[in-house]
Amino acid sequence: EKTGKVLGEFARCYKEQYGVALFNSIRYEIEGNGGPQAQLLHRKVLLEDHVIYSGNLFQYIEENKKWRNRFCMVPHNYGLVLYENKLAYEKELPPRVLVNSAGYKVLTSMDQYLELVSSSLPGVTPKSGNSPILKCPTDFPLILWHPYARHYYFCVMTGKEQEKWGAVFQDCVRHCNNGISEDSKVEAPAFTDAVRMYRQSKEQYGTWDMLCGNQTQVLSNLVMEELLPELRNAIGPRLKGKAQERQRTWIQISDAIYRMVYEQTNAQYDAMVAKCELERPQMESTIRTDMDQIITSKEHLSSKIRAFVLPKAEICVRNHVQPYISSILEALMTPTSQGFAEVREVFFKEVTDMNMNIVNEGGLEKLVEYMEKLSHLAFHPVKMQLCYEKMDQLKLEGLQQRFDVSSTSVFKQRAQIHMRQQMDDAVYTFETLLHQELGKLQGKDDLCKSIQRILERVLKKYDYDSSTVRKKFFREALLQITIPFLLKKLAPTCKGELAKFQELIFEDFASFILVENTYEEIVLQSVMKDIMQAVKEAAVQRKHNLYRDSMVMHNSDPNLHLLGEGIPIDWGEEHSGQPEAEPAADKRRRAKQVVSVIQDEEGALPYEVGAEVLMPPSSPEPEPGVPPGSPDGVAEIREVLIKESIEEPASGQAEEWLSNGTHATRESGAAEEVVVAGSAPGDVPPQGPASDGDRVRCVVPASPAPEAEVPSPPAGMACHQPSDKETCEEVAPLVACSPLQPVGTTESIEGVQTEF
Fold it and tell me: Which portions of the sequence form the region Disordered (predicted)?
């Protein structure tokens, strides 16, 4: 009932905003009003032949309250895919769990998690000394927490593993949060504006942390934001048992409700979009025919609203906004510019190291190997983490309360996405220019000089584009902070009077001109001048290496953008010296892993965790006379694990569920990856293998040790790598169950546990 009510109101907002977005899109197409042309090339064909990361970690299984060793793989679409073990992955067996991490927070301490759990169910606080809701067997937990969906609990054995997995999980969250494609010039702005208008109708202004994921996830969050407090008040007092049990039960109830809401939302949103798409041809025809009249009508409406609103808005801006713009801008500029400077530094270091290694290791053959790695640099979570973590310094203390900014996470993630895009643009421009030069080069010396010359050219282009991207980001962030504040301030005196302007709009044009949108444009204009001036002054003073708006970089590479239109470069295929083209299956099998694995072998938890934790559900209990932590007990466990890894898993495929209601499907011919070790065996310290950056890259007489490769699986065996549809979009009907029962656990007749 609540879902239907919320989506009914949202559908009205969406239909209104769809017409406005369609008109704006066609007007932009006809008039054009682009900003400065980017100097760096943008990769049009996305890289899909790589695995971000894979390795082993321990997962807590809520249904039987045990920790299990799982093989986790992160494909190019950033869905977390968990398999029973690496053998199951290599045999292309279905994964245990698929996780779309949109809306999740990555936590690295139990204290953080327990604080969030306690706040989710007010009035339920465990007594001091009582056992917590979850015990972690190591000091290095990794928890994925969501305000509505189920939580995922992992742990690793070392701090180094925790850092690397934490960076990988953060990258997954960052990517999945950015789930609404900006390529759609009508649907995306219509959707985001409709969400904003809906929330403003409920007196909710300002940024919203749960505007993350795809459209169905965002709408589910919108429903849950209203539904969950009502359910908490109705159900919370009726929960029985100890505080920890009540918290655990509430998490399961919330997750079950979230899945139900997700399923209903997905169906209703699809119907909503389909209805608008049916009307689009007629609307588009009207817009193109009457464009001039629509523009004239809108300008007339704007002039009337401006005369009424602008004097009040300017007073509000002068008294409540203008004095704080420079402070907000400075708070934004410092961490953002440091992050972009770090992107430049990481790119420079990687190319310089590659150049030095080519001098040592012998020319074109090594160039191919290094360029394949360099092409994935922007998708390397650990190396890019050096850039991303600069945004952690972003603080809007005092200003955050004044302007009703609930959290800075929206701005942090947006800046980090820009950083990754700029890094990928720089890498793609570099490899395109180098690829063009290769045919003209003679010998190793020419190659190294050419790499250095191209690097300098790309860095100049990066500096210009970086300045343009940052200035745009600062302007957008300032608007996101100040406009909701102004709208809230002006609402008592202005909003009630807007209805009288409706009569100024011709009925034929009412789908493309909205009074509410025009009013917001006037409010935006009232503050835009001050924001533009503040950013311009920062650029004139050369703060943080920003370029002035008047500085236009002449295009020194007139044919560069034509090169970007060509066929994507495959370094391995073109320059590896292979006599004939690789079969598609073999090409998929050699898909590289971006981050090298720390721990390839399946590990074991410390003895004190006990045999019970490591034994599969179907294993017999240990004998009373043998304590779990004793040598005999450990030997038994090892025998069980060896036996379990040899046995064929059950043939029946268990249906797998995401936290948002998505289920896994199988695809044939999915890609496999070859694990690339990041350092020579002799360089690995006793406490854990070295990372990518540990390999020595300098001019020395002896060449570095060759990189080891884990043998690929037998021919004809393709690893299961889920598609975007598997990890993000497909929705399955829900299994009916009581919300008070533990959600989503079954035991098949073979004794294989299935997680939903």
Answer: 662-724
